[in-house]
Amino acid sequence: xxFIYKCxxxxxxxxxxxxxxxxxxxxxxxxYNTNANQxxxxxxxxxxxxxxxxxxxxxxxxxxxxxxxxRSNDVFAEGPSGKSRGIAALLAIFLGALGIHYFYLxxxxxxxxxLVASLITCGILATITSIIGLIQGIMMFCMSQEEFExxxxxxANSFPLF
Length: 162
What we know:
Layout: E1 3-6, E2 13-16, E3 22-24, E4 31-33, H1 85-95, H2 100-104, H3 108-120, H4 124-142, H5 145-153
Helix pairs in contact: 1-4, 3-4
């Protein structure tokens, strides 16, 4: 004959071969008095499960220790870094000659290079930098958020062009 006791601390069932008054839970290590928690003895063999009616707990998705990869089709949704590829693309298309999209992405060195190149040359290099910005903006619209994060927000180099 076996006795089943429910641990009040962790909720696990503790099975013993004999009736006891004090027991230590092997799962959480909590010691407790079993007089109040004793369940009727259950015998070996196939145990019949009784069907329970009434309130059912809603399904809860299990929590994992890692974050799921970010997947969104919305161009203007912010990614894990807080940067929107849609806003960066629009800044690159309309203000690419000044390098404003680089400042938005937190890359001040290429932003300063584009800004100085446009201002010092009085617009001669502005056409080249604006064409580069236009190409970058179109590429940002066409790539996924994950590719955008890897290429422009968290790159290995500090001057991401194409």
